[in-house]
Each structure stands twice: as C-alpha cells, then as structure tokens.
Amino acid sequence: MKIWAVLGLSATMVLAQDITVLGTIRNKDKGQIVFTTLPGACEEQQKLVYATGSGGDISLYGCWAYANGQFFVVWSDKTIYSYPIDTFEFTADAQRLLNNRN
To answer: For 31-56, what is the mean pLDDT?
Structure first.
C-alpha cells in the first residue's frame, strides 16, 4: 500500500515521500500510528513511524524497531513507547512479505 505523506524531519525541514506502510495501530486520538519501511532519519535497522489524529493530519513522527513481540518507538518529542504486536494490523503488502519469508 503506497501513500503520500508529509513528514516533519526537523523544525525547518519537511519531506514529502512515497512510503510503503507495513501496518497500523489505532491511537487514543482516534487516528493511527503508521509503521513504514522507510529509513527516514533513523538509526540503522530502524524505520520511520508517524502518528495521525482523527482528521488524518500527522501529529508526531519517530523511529521504530521490533523485538520480543513489541514495536519500540522513539518519538520526535523524545518519548519512548512500546506497542504489543497483537494491537498491530498488517497491510496486505506486509502479509505478502511475511508469507514469502516462510
């Protein structure tokens, strides 16, 4: 699934990027936490994640990694959260990738 998104990478730089979405989690703002396969400005082995509100506007971005059944996210506001995989909804593209690994 490809989407267009505008992602803030610093206070002065905004990047529009065609990104592949791995999956989503519903958030408390009635939006989504969107996990991508885009490296963004993340450390090696981490990928870009962003959160939207109910209106779909991007409210926060960060970097994610997966370990031990949890998605670990370091958000741009320096907070760190973990999200269990059972709250995660994989996209059809991600399911195909997972199925091809087996």
So the answer is: 90
Q: What is the DSSP letter of 1?
A: -
Could you state, in order of their start, the residue ranges of all structural domains in the chain? 2-101
Whole-model pTM?
A: 0.75
Confidence of residue 32 (pLDDT cuts 50, 70, 90): very high
Kindly write down the DSSP assignment for every residue of 25-75, as one continuous string: EE-TTSSEEEEES--TTPPTT-EEEEEE-TT--EEEEEEEEEETTEEEEEE
- The Cα–Cα gap between 83 and 61 comes to 15
Token digits for 53?
Answer: 């509100």
Closest residue by Cα to residue 87 from 21, 22, 25, 23: 25
Higher per-residue confidence, 33 vs 41? 33
Cβ–Cβ under 8 Å, residues 5 and 30: no
